[in-house]
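Query protein
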Amino acid sequence: MQYGMTGITDLLGVGDTTPVAPIRLATMIEEGLPVASLDSVAQAVAPDDTSFRYRIVPRATLMRRMRQPDGRLSPEESGRLARLAGIWAFAREVWGDDSDAREFLFRKHPLIEMRLPIDVVLGSDIGAGVIEQILGRLKYGTAA
């Protein structure tokens, strides 16, 4: 997931004026991303769905995280969020437009048994890899 590393860290709100190296992002994920990262990604991916963030972190868990002094997600939640941010960045790169990227993620696709790509991405790392492959095929002009 190397494409658009700066775009990913910007979306997560963890980049400053210098690019974040992939290993630094991995460390940030291990330490837990800030809760604000969740809001940033959810707003970008599904701006009209106020409950979308609860698909990444359950509501009760998120409320607990928000009450904590440091307001951080767990490493698992952070990994899921970063995975989604990476796929979102790639989808935007492929489609060149937020609305087209959203349409791809939220429309059933025949290569994944008519499931929604967003569900597959949120489900597992392997699922995200499948969606990444489909996006790669679309970007480089091979059959998708």
In short: DSSP finds nine helices and no strands in the chain.
